[in-house]
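Readers of this paper often ask what the protein records in our data store actually look like. An entry from our holdings is shown next, in its original layout:
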Amino acid sequence: MPVLPSSVAPISQVFGEFGTRAINPNDYVCSTTSSAVVNLLNAELANSLADPAEAKRLLDMYARYADLVPVYEAIYFQSSATPQYYGYDGDFTKAINKTERDIKRFWDIPSSQIQVVAMHGTMLLDYERVYRTYILLGFSEAVAAAYAKVVTESLAASTTMNGGNYAFWTFNAVSYREEGFPDKIVMGDGILESFAKLGFGDVAAQAIFAHEFAHQIQFENEYFEDLGEVSQPEATRYTELMADAMAAYYLTHKRGGTLNQKRVAQFLQVFYQLGDCGFTSSGHHGTHNQRMAAAEFGFRLADEAQKQGHILTSEQFHELFVAYYPTLIAPDKS
């Protein structure tokens, strides 16, 4: 088992200047190379926009927040009590169901209450589901009805958006907790199908799910409060890098996901190209280098721990991550 720190200092001391200040973009190497998966999304969008009638349908839907409707509908209205399928044709259902079972056994937090549901773009054809989601989002009945009519009729008439099986509408995965609502992990068809098109269908579902489950650990153990008063990009970077590390640990642990480390790393090299330069964004996940370093930290812990068949508790993992974090986010740009 890795040696835990004899004691963990207060988080502000552990992080020092690196954790408490706002992120300085000049400190970090950040690639602006276009991601292969973003290129796929752009090609799909370009195909629609090339036709004037299709472009109008797409833009009419987008102007009415159709890209937000599937995720909110899944969060607030879907339930694992209803049989779920994942992917346009259910191709990822077996992998996600198995990962859910395995990861809930692997990590030590209470998790039987966490529901896993799918996000399908095809729901945008269903007027009632779209309408009730607009109501949930705060629109008046009249506006919700008008918006739902445009969205459902535009998609039904579309010749390029495949009845909602169109990655742009569901290119997301979400881990959610809110008092009064069930804990949920939502897996979008678009993100699963896009990475499968790039040849990562064997690892994408497990890796994305493991990252989202790590956020459930953070909710349960209140790690979102670790940093105290820092900028939102800094706070998000911290929790996202921890989730990257936790996911990598589970995925390659012999009692966890049992995936090949090299194969997981190949997927992550592509996955981590998404949005790694958004230093001022509230959703900043860390640079590509930082995310890979966080994953490699998880790989190393898995290598060390599994030699004795040991699984770290979530709190042991957290303590090790906290101790390593200043190294992880140290400036890497000369």
Notes: The chain is about 55% helix and 5% strand. The first helix runs from residue 11 to 20.
